[in-house]
Design goal:
With 77 residues, the protein is mostly helical. It has helices spanning 5-15, 25-41, 48-76.
Length: 77
Amino acid sequence: MKSNPFSFLLDQLEQKLPDSLRPVQAEVKAAARSLLDDKLAQFDWVPRSEFEAQAQLLAQAEARIAALEAKLEDKGA
């Protein structure tokens, strides 16, 4: 499988195209790519580095919450 799953999908579409559509293969592939690009543009993507930074902040916040909960339990007991 290719590293880009979308290219893989387009290649699979091209391979499975019926013989009757082979004359318009380039048009079908262009239309499929255009549709795929339009749909992908609708997603709210974030860079990996930003995702990892947010995950780290979340882990730190969870640790702080757990520590505060432990302090509250100690004071309440």
